[in-house]
């Protein structure tokens, strides 16, 4: 009887875990925007069905998510292929920002960075003139940063026998960079950025930039996304253009810290509780990469008096597994 009870409890636990896994969120290259006491999550949809573009989810606690009640459709689409938007494939890595009441969505499609806008957070995001930000060559993973002096900068990835991070001054109104300011941030220099588990050209991607006490912090991912060692580190500079000094204890998010393979490419944000978090994706399982799963981890910020910079780390034992609300 005792063995039967034990078996029943184990089976119940397995079924509950399986049910939760089926409700997990499968967005990659993720970002979270915070407004009005709620969180809004979007990202690359990966292998999910439905139209090309981006969908959005809403939460009050980072744990349970749902399509917003005021969404444009049942899927929560905020940008759709062909609806006054650039791109026919490869809709990746979105970022939402607000400037004076206008919402902007920057994203990748057809290996080009794009800017669309809306009067509503929930979209639809469209373009007045359909086209990429800079069609002079391929570039992906756009992140728009507003400095304290009001100037905007576009961080993105450009290809040169690998993926490299670049920055340029950006005009939000015209949606164009100033090409004369375009500058590469840094190259592949550290062992963690090129582990042998998956051979590839140098890859640095998925930028997020914040400014604290006159210092600029650039968070980025390194290694190929199919590598189990896909991970996140950061670098510090006195200018949006660098020169950048990489944190000596990188990576700050890695499978050895958060316990799951392929942990990378996300976004840093401040929660409603004033806690910093980083949202990112992981591999689907130890056997396969996709569809990738979404994760959120608390970030600790500590002032280093001697160096005059903040040091960042994550609470690897407190990873949040966001799930869809039960219908």
Can you tell me about this structure?
The protein is mostly beta strands and 327 residues long. The protein has one domain (2-324): Glycosyl hydrolase domain, family 43 (Tachylectin-2, Chain A, 5 Propeller), CATH 2.115.10. The protein has two helices and 22 strands. It has helices spanning 2-22, 255-258; strands at residues 28-35, 38-44, 53-59, 64-65, 77-80, 92-99, 102-109, 112-118, 139-146, 152-159, 163-171, 176-177, 183-184, 204-212, 215-222, 231-237, 245-246, 264-270, 276-282, 293-304, 309-314, 323-324. The strands form six sheets. Strands 9, 10, 11, 12 and 13 form a five-stranded antiparallel beta sheet that branches. The radius of gyration is 20 Å and the shape is globular.
Kindly provide the name of the CATH class: Mainly Beta
The pLDDT mean sits at 94
Identify the quaternary structure here. Answer: single chain
Task: Please identify the structural class as seen in this structure.
Answer: mainly beta
CATH architecture: 5 Propeller
Number of helices: 2
Rg is 20 Å
Uncertain segments are 8-19
Q: Say which CATH homologous superfamily is assigned.
A: Glycosyl hydrolase domain, family 43
Helix residue percentage: under 10%
Largest sheet: 5 strands, antiparallel
Q: State which percent range the strand residues make up.
A: 35-45%
Compute the separation of the termini in Å.
36 Å
**H/E element sequence:** HEEEEEEEEEEEEEEEEEHEEEEE
Q: What is the CATH topology descriptor? A: Tachylectin-2, Chain A
- Characterize the overall form: globular
Total discrete domains = 1
Number of E-type strands? 22
């Amino acid at each position: 009887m005792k063995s039967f009870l034990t078996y029943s409890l184990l089976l119940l636990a397995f079924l509950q875990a399986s049910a939760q896994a089926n409700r997990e969120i499968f967005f990659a290259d993720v970002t979270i925007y915070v407004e009005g006491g709620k969180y809004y999550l979007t990202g690359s949809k990966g292998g999910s069905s439905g139209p090309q573009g981006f969908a959005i989810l809403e939460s009050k606690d980072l744990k349970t998510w749902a399509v917003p009640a005021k969404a444009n459709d049942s899927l929560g689409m905020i940008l759709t292929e062909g609806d006054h938007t650039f791109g026919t494939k490869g809709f990746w890595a979105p970022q939402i920002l607000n400037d004076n009441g206008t919402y902007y969505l920057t994203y990748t499609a057809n290996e080009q960075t794009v800017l669309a806008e809306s009067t509503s957070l929930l979209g639809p995001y469209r373009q007045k003139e359909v086209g990429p930000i800079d069609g002079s060559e391929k570039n992906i993973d756009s992140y728009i940063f507003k400095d304290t002096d009001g100037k905007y900068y576009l961080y993105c990835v450009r290809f040169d026998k690998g993926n490299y991070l670049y920055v340029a001054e950006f005009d939000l109104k015209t949606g164009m960079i100033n090409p004369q300011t375009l500058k590469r941030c840094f190259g592949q220099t550290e062992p963690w950025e090129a582990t042998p588990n998956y051979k590839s050209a140098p890859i640095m991607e998925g930028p997020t930039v914040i400014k604290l006490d006159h210092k600029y912090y650039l968070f980025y991912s390194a290694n190929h996304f199919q590598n189990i060692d896909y991970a996140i580190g950061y670098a510090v500079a006195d200018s949006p253009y660098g020169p950048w000094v990489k944190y000596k204890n990188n990576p700050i998010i890695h499978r050895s810290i958060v316990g799951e393979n392929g942990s990378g490419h996300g976004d840093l944000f401040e929660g409603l509780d004033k806690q910093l978090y980083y949202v990112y994706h992981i591999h689907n399982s130890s056997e396969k990469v996709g569809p990738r799963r979404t994760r959120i981890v608390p970030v600790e910020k500590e002032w280093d008096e001697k160096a005059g910079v903040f040091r960042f780390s994550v609470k690897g034992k407190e990873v949040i597994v966001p799930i869809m609300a039960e219908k």
